[in-house]
From TrEMBL, chain A:
Residues 1-22 form the signal peptide. The lineage of its organism: Bacteria, Pseudomonadati, Pseudomonadota, Gammaproteobacteria, Alteromonadales. Pfam families: DUF3034. Keywords: Signal. It comes from Idiomarina baltica OS145. InterPro entries: DUF3034. This is Uncharacterized conserved secreted protein.
TrEMBL record, chain B:
Its cofactor is heme. The lineage of its organism: Bacteria, Pseudomonadati, Pseudomonadota, Gammaproteobacteria, Alteromonadales. Binds 1 heme group per subunit. One of its GO terms (molecular function) is heme binding. It comes from the Bacteria. This is Group 1 truncated hemoglobin.
Length: 285, 140
């Protein structure tokens, strides 16, 4: 993990040119700073754990954009590494890919999955007009280490998540700060994102879960916020809890963003109250 | 183009200095009143002139007049003692073919100008929130 973070930080240092200059020159796309958001652990553009209605990168109408990301999460008994990339066409369609490695540090072993995502902006705009930006997406997940998930009751090694998201920014909200809110409704049967497979012995059915994020920009470059993500609970061997985090996001330029968070992932695979740190670095082109 | 715009605006600025200040809103004051607003709009237009994404829209435009009108408008919407004497946004941007990316490009230069002039973030946001609704009349 330290090696990956080191790599991520060097990408950051190389890209983090002086903010105002970076805004004016060689901007990767025309959307306003920070409206590209960050990358989620499932690859889609969004917050850290919730996919947002915003599309990744800064591509606007008539433009295309791309991002690459590296994310590390370290909680008490587990760590998660994510590498991902995304492509945005016309700020209309986002295609994303992410690989996850989940290290069972205390239990022993590693779980892996890959996720392809497609998200389309259906209507509205994050910043302009009164209507929220509404997008719909799918995430196709396949678990590459199904032996353990199967042993604990999962029924499938691959599955789809479907979601609809709505997001809106208030340019001058409370305290004359810019606020962004996103709500997402997801239909899923994934256990712990899919790292513990799909479907379960306790319940083998799809569920609707709600997810939400709120962030406030302290200035043009720094935002703080919270996220909440409901989770299904389909396996009888261990309870699955909702996830939440508090984050700080830094957008020094349109080329790079960094998100640090404190995450509470609840009980995972029988090990209670998993809390810890989250660090994500994204580069935009 | 940039140098030309610069010279023209300096000239204009010197002709217009000494305008009378009336009592006015906090936002207007935080933008630096009339002279602060003129500087911000000037810097914004310099940025626009240098931006290959949108500079072409302004190729045949009387920049001095545009500077005067946008300054008036910003002064007016921010609660300053100015009357806006130009056309409506819908009329003046009609048929220009401005898209969302163009609009954001101009907003970016406005933000950069306000950062440059150390306008507090709260005031920046309030001005942006006052201008954002014009998006629907400007973008096609
Ligand atoms: C909130 C954003 C904007 C504001 C407040 C604004 C304001 C103005 C004002 C006050 C005028 C003068 C109106 C008149 O002639 O009576 C004007 C004209 C013009 N604007 Fe904008 N504008 C905005 C966005 C844009 C954008 C995004 C573009 C293109 C990228 C643009 C291009 C032009 C052009 C080319 C003219 C001159 C039209 C002509 O004289 O024929 N404007 N604008």
């Amino acid at each position: 993990m330290p090696k990956r973070i080191f790599y991520g930080l060097s990408v950051l240092l190389l890209s983090a040119v002086q903010p105002v200059l970076a805004q004016q020159f060689e901007a990767p796309g025309s959307r306003l700073l920070a409206t590209g958001g960050a990358s989620t652990i499932e690859g889609s553009g969004g917050g850290g754990i919730v996919p947002w209605a915003t599309l990744s990168s800064y591509a606007d109408e008539g433009e295309w954009g791309a991002t690459v990301q590296m994310t590390e999460v370290q909680v008490d008994d587990f760590s998660l590494s994510v590498q991902g990339a995304s492509f945005n066409w016309n700020n209309r369609v986002e295609v994303s890919y992410a690989r996850q490695q989940f290290d069972l540090e205390t239990i022993g072993g590693e779980l892996e999955q890959s996720i392809w995502g497609v998200k389309a902006r259906l209507s509205g705009d994050l910043v302009y007009g009164v209507m929220p930006q509404v997008s719909a997406g799918i995430q196709h997940k396949s678990n590459q280490t199904f032996a353990l998930p199967q042993a604990v009751g999962a029924t499938d090694d691959s599955s789809m998540d479907y979601y609809v998201s709505a997001a809106k920014a208030w340019l001058a909200g409370p305290f004359s700060r810019t606020w962004v809110a996103n709500v997402t409704l997801r239909n899923t049967e994934a256990n712990q994102l899919g790292l513990l497979g799909f479907g379960g012995d306790k319940e083998d059915s799809r569920e609707w879960v709600g997810e939400a994020s709120v962030a406030v920009f302290l200035d043009r470059y720094w935002a703080v916020g919270v996220e909440y993500r409901q989770k299904p609970d389909l396996l009888s061997f261990a309870k699955e809890d909702d996830w939440k985090d508090i984050f700080v996001a830094y957008f020094p330029s349109k080329h790079v963003s960094v998100v640090g968070a404190y995450a509470d992932l609840g009980s995972i695979a029988g090990l209670e109250s998993q809390t810890g740190w989250y660090l994500s670095v994204q580069a935009s082109f | 183009m940039k140098i030309w715009v610069s010279a023209a605006l300096v000239l204009l600025g010197s002709m217009m200095s000494g305008a009378v200040q009336a009592q006015s809103s906090e936002l207007y004051q935080q933008l630096g009143e009339r002279s602060g607003i003129e500087t911000i709009v000037e810097e914004m237009l310099l940025g626009v002139a240098d931006d290959e994404r949108i500079a072409h829209y302004f190729a045949d435009v009387d920049i001095l007049r545009l500077h005067k009108l946008i300054s008036e408008q910003v002064c007016n919407v921010s609660g300053g003692p100015c009357e806006y004497t130009g056309d409506s946004m819908a009329v003046s941007h009609n048929n220009l073919g401005i898209n969302n990316a163009d609009f954001n490009a101009l907003v970016e230069h406005l933000i950069a100008a306000m950062e440059q002039e150390n306008v507090p973030v709260a005031a920046q946001n309030e001005l942006l929130a006052l201008l954002a609704p014009m998006h629907q009349d400007i973008v096609e």
